[in-house]
Write a structure and sequence with these properties.
There is one protein chain. With 482 residues, this protein is of the alpha+beta class. The protein is 57% helix and 8% strand. The protein contains 17 helices and 8 strands. The strands form 2 sheets. Strands 1-3-5-4-2 form a 5-stranded antiparallel beta sheet, sandwiched between helices. The protein has a 3-stranded antiparallel beta sheet with strand order 6-7-8, with helices on one face. Helix 1 runs antiparallel to helix 2, helix 10 packs antiparallel against helix 11 and helix 12 runs antiparallel to helix 13. The longest helix has 46 residues. It is extended.
Length: 482
């Protein structure tokens, strides 16, 4: 399930080249240069030569010859950086690299300088593509929405040819401005403050619906416009912002879900009601939620989205509601769902066979009757009657017998809709449970130990804070007694 992302690099091109070829992140066999060297220093010189020849700008810093009629006077992109990430466990490192090379060759052709590197240091394999903006003929690569969508389509097609899964209906996402990121780092982002305000209101007991949330926002002085989207005006002189632009978890449907499922915002006290794999999974879910809502996206050690949290929460609820406390029990449930699906498919196959059999009896009976009453018969007619004699073996000798079989056919056809509904339900249950198991497996393989360690660190910090508070209280009591 490869995902394509793009980052424009305006400075420090050598730093990026050294990063993607870092021996702690990849291996020599997983680095390939298309029209350039696999050595970062040599590749830098090769790309520098091409860039400076056609752009009339320095590769390593802002232009000495800025041409305001080109790109509106903006600083040129020094390198294009594409990232292709794979689902954990779905592909080997060698195949991931081969897929990356296929993608790069089809995406950029045979004249651009492209350094391709497959990183293996994370829980999931991912390819890095560093592209010089100019090809050997001086043609400029345009990194825009159109080219990115084309890249995603090419990636999906190549993935399918390798037997990998793809995201059938990707949801729309929105990029955040770099200025917002800097504000987050300084702790001065009004968007972060608004998100914190929304997080607090969602958890209030007297907020039970979106309408309640809107009322509370109005009480706090926010301007609200509620139509297809929820738009909030933080200050009178500031434009409104639609909540979905705050990121995952703030789409209108996300907010509604969070209000309805308040224990989705899982406190440590909520974790205590689980045991077995449920408790550890609840701890992991809490850490994922903390990363999503408390850490700016560039600082997150793992990719986290609202959909990640929602998917893991649904799995936890399923484990808890069905009293599943071990991996073995989860496997058994998945196996039973697979068996049920096979069972209803077999039942449908048998039903289709019986319907075909009855239809054939009804279709053949007129000819059978005609031949039985015919005398004399030709040789071919005798052969035909011999084939139709199965009707006599089944006791279909009169119109009354035929009527009985017509009634049976109608009854069988009446069972088709119910059978198809059973198949649809069994498949949905099988797919849901298989997805749950894949989610659990992926979480355990990729992030489980990391998340549990983060939870342990959090508990230690809380324990230390309690000790400090108790010590401070003891000190105050001591001075008070004196």
């Amino acid at each position: 399930m490869p995902i394509i992302k793009y980052v424009a690099v305006h400075g420090s091109p050598l730093k990026l080249l050294k990063y993607v070829t870092n021996e702690n992140k990849t291996e020599d066999t997983l680095i390939t240069g298309l029209n350039c060297s696999t050595d970062s220093n040599i590749a830098y010189k090769e790309m520098e030569q091409n860039f400076e020849l056609y752009s009339e700008e320095r590769f390593w810093k802002k232009s000495l010859f800025m041409k305001k009629d080109i790109l509106g006077g903006k600083e040129r992109v020094r390198l294009h950086h594409y990232i292709q990430s794979f689902k954990a466990g779905e592909v080997s490192k060698e195949e991931a690299h081969r897929i990356g090379l296929e993608w790069a060759k089809e995406m950029f052709g045979d004249k651009f300088q492209v350094l391709v590197s497959t990183h293996t240091d994370k829980g999931h394999l991912h390819n890095h593509f560093v592209v010089c903006p100019y090809d050997d003929d001086g043609k400029l690569w345009r990194a825009d929405k159109k080219s990115l969508n084309r890249g995603k389509a090419i990636s999906d097609r190549i993935a399918l040819s390798h037997g990998l899964s793809i995201i059938e209906h990707p949801k729309k996402s929105y990029n955040h401005k770099y200025g917002d990121y800097l504000s987050q780092k300084r702790g001065a982002s009004w968007k972060e403050n608004l998100k914190a305000e929304l997080d607090e209101l969602v958890m209030r007991e007297d907020v039970c619906s979106i309408d309640d949330l809107v009322d509370k926002l109005k009480e706090k002085g926010y301007g609200i416009r509620m139509k297809k989207y929820l738009s909030i005006q933080v200050k009178p002189n500031r434009k409104t912002i639609r909540t979905y632009r705050l990121g995952d978890g703030y789409f209108l449907e996300h907010l509604a879900y969070r209000i309805e499922h308040k224990n989705f915002e899982m406190p440590l006290s909520e974790v205590a009601k689980y045991d077995g794999i449920q408790r550890e999974y609840a701890i992991c879910l809490r850490q994922i939620q903390i990363m999503l809502y408390k850490s700016p996206e560039p600082d997150r050690p793992h990719y986290v989205s609202y959909r990640t949290v929602l998917k893991n929460y649904e799995l936890l609820c399923y484990l808890h509601n069905n009293n599943i406390h071990s991996v073995g029990e989860l496997k058994d449930v998945v196996s039973k769902a697979e068996g049920k699906y096979s069972e209803v498919l077999t039942a449908k196959k048998k039903l289709d066979g019986r319907i075909s059999e009855e239809e054939k009896i009804i279709e053949d009976f007129p000819r059978f009757t005609e031949l039985v009453n015919k005398n004399p018969m030709t040789k071919s007619e005798r052969e035909e009657l011999k084939k139709l004699s199965y009707l006599a073996d089944k006791g279909v000798l009169s119109n009354d017998d035929l009527a009985e079989h017509k009634a049976i056919l109608e009854k069988l056809r009446g069972q088709v809709d119910g059978c198809e509904e059973n198949i649809k339900a069994a498949k949905a249950e099988r797919d849901k449970l298989t997805d749950y198991f894949d989610t659990y497996t992926q979480q355990v393989q990729c992030d489980y130990d990391f998340l549990l360690e983060k939870a342990r660190e959090e508990q230690e910090r809380k324990a230390q804070a309690v000790q400090i508070e108790e010590h401070e209280q003891e000190r105050k009591n001591y001075h008070y007694e004196k």
